[in-house]
Amino acid sequence: MLRNMFKKTYTTIDTKYKPQAKGGEEPSIPQGLWRKCNKCGQPIYVEDVVNNYYVCPKCGGYFRVHAYRRIEMLVDEGTFEEWNKEVPFSNPLNFPNYEKKVTAAREKTKLNEAIVIGKGMIEGNPAVVGVCDARFIMSSMGHVVGEKITEAVEQATREKLPVIIFACSGGARMQEGIVSLMQMAKTSAALKRHHEAGQLFISVFTDPTTGGVTASFAMLGDIILAEPHALIGFAGPRVIEQTIGQKLPEGFQRAEFLLEHGFIDKIVERKDQKRVIGQILYMHRNHDMVERKPEDGSRDMESGEGVTNQNASAPEKSDSRAARREKAEGGFFGRFSRSEKTDSASAKKHTKRGDKASEKMQKADDAGAKTAWDTVLLSRRTDRPVAMDYIDGLFDEFIEFHGDRYFKDDGAIVGGIAMFHGMPVTVIGQQKGRNTKDNIKRNFGMPSPDGYRKALRLMKQAETFGRPIICFVDTPGAYCGMDAEERGQGEAIARNLFEMSDLKVPVLSIVIGEAGSGGALAIAVANEVWMLENSTYSILSPEGFASILYKDSKKAPEAAKVMKITAADLKDLDIIERIVPEEEPASMDNLYRLVEYMDRAIIEFFETYLPMSGEALAEQRYERFRRM
User: Fold this and answer.
1) Burial tier of 627 (Cβ tally within 10 Å: 0-12, 13-18, 19+)
2) Cα distance from N-terminal residue to C-terminal residue, the chain
3) pLDDT tens, 214-263?
4) Where do the zinc-finger regions (C4-type) map (predicted)?
5) How high is the pLDDT of residue 239?
6) Per-residue CA distances from 26 to 21, 31, 46, 57, 268 (Å)
7) Is 230:255 a contact under the CB 8 Å cutoff?
């Protein structure tokens, strides 16, 4: 019924455009078949537009979507229950002709107000959904819109449900003046309580979203998504140009501009939104997580006892770990799937291999087989796997999130959420490039302040939703350019150390290549730190050390030896907990062996740390560094 209603809405022929046949004669076209794309101006079949999620099949331009049509595309059929559909009109400032304007908008759109809100299922996951409709006074936010959003968020908080709002607005509603302005604070306050209750808010920007909506609830998502090319900004382009008298650059205030500048997590095409949002909701259902209770540390990840799901039972809830692995395994894991009975023995065997690695490396050094400088060179090899290689090998359904919410998205830090044997985790990595072009994009793995702030944002998000954190460390050091200093490189690193020390979720950091100075430590304040056998971890590069102490950077090989920077050295110093053996120097050819070892070891790590309370985890982390 909804589909038929909206097909009818979109089949009104555009009278400004009539396709011309050859010779200038007008073809005979049945009324309602054609529509003109407002982006490329080309004629398109209405049916093609409908079937393509209201995206022009010729130029990819996005049509604005009516609220109920958006809900139909997003929410599982037959599950949507609308809330507060009919709200009486009021004119708080007695603004002239305001009632007539609202009445006209109601007659035109068949809506009561500029937002439709209710509860439904998305890919089987319950959520509260709100969708703004630009046809209703440009979806400006008056007191009714503010009240509908606030009531919905409050109800979602009570029912422990996530909230999703598709924003589209010209901003505050001028006819309501200061009353409209107050809705910015009211909706933000409701979302703050929702956040403090540990509940998820996903904000989705559509075209256009400006003014007071951008400066309130729309920018407060735990996860912020956007449609391609959507106009997003506080002051609209026309206002800016008229105010400063300057022509704005191409693409200014578009979704891609905001992604580059760190304000949104991800741009998602309309055809993928239901799948991606459903995936995010599923990862936030807290299934397969060990319930942490200080008085009971016996929760069992193997049997599933203590597993909680705050919304509904997930299919994986009662499965054994081996069954979950069999469902989730793909890529590397298909090569070495094992039965549940072998898991414990395998983990113990790998642990012993890791413990013996230090002895083996020390003997090799004594025999002159491999020097510390050799290890430095191995850690820097261009064919060595980078963070995303390990992320792809170890985890399923990785969704990368972007940006620090302040200035930009730093390519030297990657991060997001993923599944590990049926359990949601947050994954963060320092990312080097795989080639020269990629290295330039990634700044050769040297993070800026924006990268560290992005990492911390994702860590705090993980803490809010109870997800363990796994970090992959691989950097020659933090970027030391002038712009990094201007944006507070030292403060950004210090803030990470400060906040990571007290995170209430398990944190594991794995050094996979170089770990240089505070730039590495900024994502390595963990419950445990592991190193690959041919990786290094140092106060600064051997070249820098030699320049400072020996006044000669050519003495770097000598410096590497005295600095004690190899995995074996640091295991002996109790700086790290585990060595990941490299039977051969790490490469893409043998990555699956490293992934196999890490997989078993991470399971063991979780079995140790997931049953601990948040306070106990923070205390263990504090004591770990306190003894150094």
Assistant:
1) exposed
2) 68
3) 999 999 999 999 999 999 999 888 888 888 888 888 899 999 999 999 99
4) 37-59
5) 84
6) 5, 13, 19, 24, 39
7) yes
Rounded to the nearest integer, the mean pLDDT of the chain is 86
Q: Which pairs with CB-CB distance under 8 Å and at least 24 residues apart come from 90-96?
A: 90/143, 90/144, 91/175, 92/143, 92/176, 92/177, 92/179, 93/175, 93/176, 93/177, 93/179, 95/175, 95/176, 95/177
Known binding residue 40? Answer is yes
Is residue 130 a contact partner of residue 166, using CB atoms and an 8 Å limit?
A: yes
- The answer to whether 33 touches 11, Cβ cutoff 8 Å, is yes
The burial of 79, by beta-carbon neighbours within 10 Å (0-12 exposed, 13-18 middle, 19 or more buried), is given as middle
* 537 token code pair: 């971890």
Using alpha carbons, list the distances in angstroms from residue 160 to 117, 199, 273, 450, 515: 16, 6, 22, 32, 41
For the record, the structure tokens of 33 come out as 């078949």
| 168 known member of a binding site | no
The response to whether 59 counts as a known ligand-binding position is: yes
- Whether residue 37 is annotated as binding a ligand: the answer is yes
236: its two tokens: 């609209």
Please give the Cα distance from 529 to 440 (Å, whole number).
28
Q: Report pLDDT digits (tens) over 452-491.
A: 999 999 999 999 999 999 999 999 999 999 999 999 999 9
> What does pTM read for this prediction?
0.83
